[in-house]
Amino acid sequence: MLVGSVLYILPSPTRRKMLIEVLIASWIGVQKVPTHKVETIVSVESEEPPSRGIKDIAQELVEDEFGQGQWESFDNIVKSESGWRPDAQNPHSTAFGLCQFLNSTWKHGKTNDPVEQLRECVAYTSDRYNTPNEAWAFWRANRWW
What we know:
Elements lengths: L1 E2 L2 E2 L5 H15 L14 E2 L6 H17 L4 H12 L31 H16 L2 H11 L3
Antiparallel strand pairs: 1-2, 2-3
Helix pairs in contact: 2-4, 3-5, 4-5
């Protein structure tokens, strides 16, 4: 989550809950907050590539949908299709975005929003291949998906 010029790294729902508890405690005036509840906060200027945040979101979506053991395959597909660039455009077709969907592939319409692109990619993976591992096996055999 980016607030001002500070990036709060919140990689899991459990850690988010702990950070919220710390913030609430400080707002209502609790004097001492247990140190195990303090979340690491990193200050970041604009040097961090935007795809890092996208990959974090993607991994969370993939693990929520498919469980463990699927992330590497999903990552490989997106790396191969777009290099994790949400604005990637194939100059020879309508393929666009992180997963290089054709205009006819988009369920909810073509979008520049990387999070919406990820949701579409996860849904497409589930609908067509069941899992990222199966999608990656198809991609390796055909060089498309």
